[in-house]
Amino acid sequence: MDGWIEELWLIAIVEDVPDDEVRRWWNSKETDFLDGLAESAPTFRLGTILTTVGEPQLGSPTRRVFDLMFLRSTYPEDFHPDPSAPYVLPLLDADLRSALLAAFSPQADDHPLMEAAPLTGLTDFLDKHGGARLTTHSPTEAVPVSLPLRPS
Fold first, then answer.
1. CA-to-CA distance for 11 and 39, rounded, in angstroms?
2. Alpha carbon of 80 to those of 16, 126, 151: distances in Å?
3. Cα separation of 16 and 39, whole Å?
4. Is 35 exposed, middle or buried, given 0-12, 13-18 or 19+ CB atoms closer than 10 A?
5. 9 - beta bridge partners?
6. Angle at 71 (CA atoms; ends 69, 73), nearest 5 degrees
7. From residue 66, how far is each of 63, 70, 134, 150 by CA, in Å?
8. Which of 7, 15, 42, 89 gets the highest tally of CB atoms within 10 A of its CB?
9. Does the structure show a pLDDT above 60 at 150?
10. pTM for the full model?
11. For 47-77, what is each residue's pLDDT tens digit?
12. Could you tell me the pLDDT band of residue 41, with boundaries at 50, 70 and 90?
């Protein structure tokens, strides 16, 4: 099985971000405005994330957080006060905090290649940045990997 591994960070943004910049961030990550905010905003290193080619994605705390943030950011109809917004940076409220902690909790079938920070570190980060808007970010280049197939 082939794929890419990279670091995944959670970013807390307090500045207002124009809708078109949020759309660009989630579609291609090519936005100087949000890139600049990501460099100066508070961050938390979640761990590593593995993306596979043509296979179901392997489980890990970082994968579940990425999937949760992608869902809430690109399909905000059920989560955001303005259901017409096509892309958002989700607000860190009690609901998102709870969902993030549940997603980041280790599970028995998590792939060992994808390391994750301690859950207490994420809890501390979320406690410090309540009310901020959150997004994920991979500040480094993805590295190609080839993995043996796991038995089913």
1. 9
2. 15, 19, 40
3. 16
4. middle
5. 45, 137
6. 65
7. 5, 6, 11, 22
8. 89
9. no
10. 0.88
11. 998 887 776 777 899 999 999 999 988 887 7
12. very high
- Residue 133 φ then ψ, to 5°: -95, 140
Please tell me whether residue 11 adopts helix, strand or coil conformation. Answer: strand
Those residues whose C-beta lies under 8 Å from the C-beta of residue 21, and which sit 6 or more positions away, are 31, 33, 34
Say whether 62 sits in a helix, a strand or coil: helix
* DSSP assignment letter at 91: B
Give the pair of three-digit tokens for residue 35: 């890139």
pLDDT band at 29 (very low <50, low <70, confident <90, very high): low
Q: What is residue 45's predicted lDDT score, i.e. its pLDDT? A: 97
Name which of 63, 52, 56 is nearest 145 in CA terms: 52
Quote the pLDDT of residue 81. Answer: 65
Instruction: Give the whole-angstrom CA distance, residue 128 versus residue 126.
Output: 5
